[in-house]
Amino acid sequence: MSFDFKLPDLGEGIHEAEVLSVKVAEGQTIAEDQILFEVETDKAIVEIPSPVSGKILKILVKGGQIISVGTIMISVEESGQKQISPAANYIADAEQPGENTKPKEKELFVKHEVTNLDVVVIASPATRQLARELKIDLRKIAGSGPGGKIFKEDVLAYAESINNKHSAPVLSQSVNSVANINSNNNPLPDFSKFGSIERLPLRSLRRKTAQSMALSWSKIPHVTHCDEANITNLEIFRNRSEYRDHLKDSGARLTLTVFVMKAISLALQEFPEFNTSLDELTEEIIVKHYYNLGMAVATERGLIVPVIKSVDKKNIFDLAIEISEVAEKARAAKTELADLQGGTFSVTNIGAIGGISATPIINYPEAAILAVMKMIERPILKQGQLENVCVLPLCLAFDHRLADGAQAAKFVRAIIKMLEQPTLFEDHLGI
Q1: CB-CB contact of 369 with 72 (8 Å)
Q2: pTM (predicted TM-score)
Q3: Residues contacting 5, CB < 8 A, separation 6+
Q4: Centroid of chain to Cα 107
Q5: Does domain 1-91 have CATH number 2.40.50.100?
């Protein structure tokens, strides 16, 4: 029996991937769970295994190609007795509304929902869950994805069309390209008329970053508030020899990022409006009672934002070790999809490179992001005397729909209070 394997659903909100490498060849005999492809999507590299064993008849994709979920990647002549439903193209039994379905062993793969003999609805589990919550029949929606696959954006757009009382804008098409987000199809001028040019493909992480940034900028009214922290005492505190000795076996260091992230997790409990998301469809503010901080890491492939979970519950030394491990994992391109999910607030530290001010773009659908700039030494006038101090500029970009300038100023000052009085961290050291 011939079986066509399609690019599976790799996670919520992921509609496409770039094929990094093909691990097999036509005519080769493969085993179930053997790795077929390596793809990059949503800032992570994913290995895709085969759901069946058999002989490869045809490979339909190649390295460097960007493909959508549902694209046929490989055709296999199956061995063994496994039977595949032609309508569902291998993947799982249909989930019906209200069922408590047990997670399938191969959760990586797409699940097709067959609602009747005439209509095949293709949607991910997250999309079907959203439709159930909104009491929407997926059979009534024309999916915008390959083969009519329905995305969450399609469900939201349909809900908006039948509920005019909700005036907030909702994306009406899948976010598959930078052009879709920008809604600006005006052609560029012919630059070659003025001199030599080179065209480089927008690929992999840079392409995903372009999409994410355009989406965030188009959806969120950004405001940036900047302030400065006098971290002279913190520099002395974090460089104590006993602290270095405590961490020497782990290879981690008490960096400024460690203290900034801990201070943020504590300040967010006092100012929960910066740990929220806005549900435009229901006109509700979602307040998160957990504190998972995204940490921007510069890698050779580009910027990646792994998430440090439950920062509020971790002591300073454990946090230092985890931050070091997560950053190294990101630089080695070993970050997994789960490492990138669940963030409630983000931090970007560009101080090692330079800069005294920035307007960072919020990691949608979060409410805020804090940029940590380059620490500088400068004199200040204190009680009539000049004194050299270490100053750390901080820039908070926030969603002005969810918070006002006064709240932002107070939130940043709460972070600064911790950084300027490092003894406040003593109860959080873990020793």
Answers
A1: no
A2: 0.67
A3: 36, 50, 51, 52, 72, 73, 74, 75, 76, 90
A4: 19
A5: yes
DSSP E strand stretches across 106-213: 112-114, 120-122
Distances (CA, A) of 174 to 97, 144, 202, 427: 24, 7, 19, 47
Q: What CATH number does domain 111-176 carry, 3.90.76.10, 2.40.10.220, 4.10.320.10, 3.40.50.880?
A: 4.10.320.10
Alpha-carbon distance of 207 to 42, in angstroms, equals: 10
Render pLDDT for 69-83 as a digit per residue (tens, 0 to 9): 889 999 999 886 444
With residue 76 as reference, give the H or E element that holds it: strand 72-78
Report the alpha-carbon distance of residue 252 to residue 321 in Å, rounded: 5
Look up residue 373 and give its two tokens: 């700039």
Nearest to 320 by CA among 308, 329, 330: 308
Locus of tokens 């047990």: 102
CA distance 134 to 127: 11
CATH number attached to the domain at 207-428: 3.30.559.10
In one-letter notation, the amino acid at residue 297 is V
Cα–Cα dist 351/376, whole Å? 10
Residue 400 designated active-site: yes
Catalytic residue among 15, 225, 400, 428: 400
Question: How many C-beta atoms lie closer than 10 Å to residue 307's C-beta?
Answer: 21
Q: What is the pLDDT of residues 339-372, one digit of tens each?
A: 999 999 999 999 889 899 999 999 999 999 999 9
Neighbouring C-alpha atoms within 13 Å toward the C-beta of 56: 20
Report the alpha-carbon distance of residue 296 to residue 304 in Å, rounded. 6
Q: Quick check: bond before 365 cis, omega within 30?
A: yes
Higher pLDDT, 201 or 410: 410
The tokens of 197 are what? Answer: 């040019």
Nearest to 336 by CA among 45, 99, 49: 45
- Percent helix / strand / coil, the chain, rounded to 5: 30, 25, 45
Which residue ranges make up each domain of the chain? 1-91, 111-176, 207-428
Contact 360, 381 (CB under 8 A): no
CA distance from start to end of the chain = 63
